[in-house]
Amino acid sequence: MSLYIVVGYGPAGAAAARLLAGQGHTVRVVTRSGRAPEPGIEHVALDATDAARLTGAARGAGAILGCAAPPYHRWTKEWPPLAASLAEAAEATGAVLVMLGNLYGYGPVDGPLTEDLPLAATGPKGRVRAAAWERVRTLHEQGRVRAVEVRASDFFGPGVTDGGHLAGRFMPPLLRGKAVTALGDPDAPHSWSYLPDVAAALVEAAGEERAWGRAWHVPTEPPLSVREMADRLSAAAGTAPVAVRPTPSAVLGVASLFSPLLRELKEIRYQFDRPFVVDSSAYRSAFTVRSTPVDEQVGATVAWWRERLAAGG
Fold first, then answer.
1. DSSP 63-128
2. Which of 6, 108, 118, 133 is the most exposed place for a label (fewest CB within 10 A)?
3. How far apart are CA 7 and CA 31, in angstroms?
């Protein structure tokens, strides 16, 4: 079994670390504050932008999974040094670098998103994410690192809390039978990346040499609108369907004055105002991880949120 370094312990980092530990691997998680040890998982406190210290922590590792992300409103400042440090550590140690990416880099697109589309983002967050991968891909092509990017759509599922569109602001009222709100058009088809599938794809790509040197989309189920997801979640919870209301632009504008997160969401509003569909057929054709059927996703998510809320979370 191998040593894996997981940088970041948000939803995806935690899911990937626990999956690796469950497979019998040694896992070292790097975060700024550290945590108490978990079965099979060592937690190390260090700043991942400190390339020398990150390299030291990654000595002997087979792969580094870059799952950290700065606070949303600090992406443009903090993503470049983080990506550079990950690449430096991978080059110095020989570990495969697996970057968790998203879909912002494509910018607004008509039609399904495929990995061969140009990275033509017009907003600052999309441009900084695209530039981070382009730099790492260049290093791979130069033979200096071995790297792959695994791109996910909006996270959904157990473990997704404040950062998810179908999570902390959505699930508690839905489980109480109350109306929920949606960013953009609640009837626009939208692709959701189920968190366990994200973790499984990250882990599989780390060990598949055929995956390296390019980006892949996480295996994802066919798109469903926010309203359709709300109906399925209500049915799984055994409650009546809840009302789904769009967030008026004026309300979003006022709220963004007080919330950095909402202010930054303006850049990617286009993802919810019209169909936002991920094509993950390339991954499915090449590798073994498959997307979890949506009914299983929904059932597990309802059960997780009920347990969390019952525990006072």
1. EEEE-----GGGHHHHHHHHHHHHHHHHHHH-PEEEEEE-SGGG-S-SS-B-TTS-----SHHHHH
2. 118
3. 6
Query: Cα–Cα distance between 313 and 302 in angstroms, integer?
Result: 14
Give CA–CA dist 130/282, Å, rounded: 20
85: Cα separation from own chain's centroid: 20
Find residue 278's DSSP bridge partners: 113
Residue type, position 36, single letter: A
Taking Cα atoms as reference points, which of 285, 224, 281, 279 lies closest to residue 113? Answer: 279
**How far apart are alpha carbons 215 and 147 in whole angstroms?**
9
Please answer whether residues 26 and 2 qualify as being in contact, where contact means their C-beta atoms are separated by less than 8 angstroms: yes
Q: How far apart are CA 134 and CA 84, in angstroms?
A: 11
Which tens digit of pLDDT belongs to each residue from 229-244? 999 999 999 999 999 9
Spatial contact of 200 and 16, defined as CB atoms under 8 Å apart: no
The interaxial angle of helices 75-93 and 124-141, nearest 10 deg, is 10
Rounded Cα distance between 27 and 294, Å, is 29
Tokens of 210: 């055929």
| Residue 300 tokens, joined | 């597990």
Between CA 8 and CA 23 the distance in angstroms is 19
- pTM of the complete model beyond 0.85: yes
Residues 121, 122, 127, 131, CA torsion sign: positive
> pLDDT tens digits, residue range 286-312?
999 999 999 999 999 999 999 999 998
Sequence letter at residue 145: V
Taking 3-state DSSP, the helix, strand and coil percentages for the chain, each rounded to the nearest 5, stand at 45, 15, 40
DSSP label of 110: S
Residue 104 CA to residue 278 CA, distance in Å, equals 12
